[in-house]
User: Fold this.
Amino acid sequence: MSSRGRWIVVYLLLAPAVALPLWVSLYDRTDPTLFGFPFFFWFQFALILVAVSLTVPAYLVAQGAERSDRLRHGLPAEPPTEPAGAEEQP
Assistant:
């Protein structure tokens, strides 16, 4: 898959994690309840699990896309670990 295709996958994975919590009319009700908690509360907790389960694969795909972008531009696969200008001075 091309690097551009990987970034599209990242955006598609992150879109529900951003859009669902903003769509308040989706969960603006009290029924059904779960262990005495209204739908409004337990659905938001479920959204946290959904967001985590979508963010982790998005991160992994983005890491691979960044690595392939760096290689395509002639850079090392991993960025340098020491900050620029931090070389030892004689």
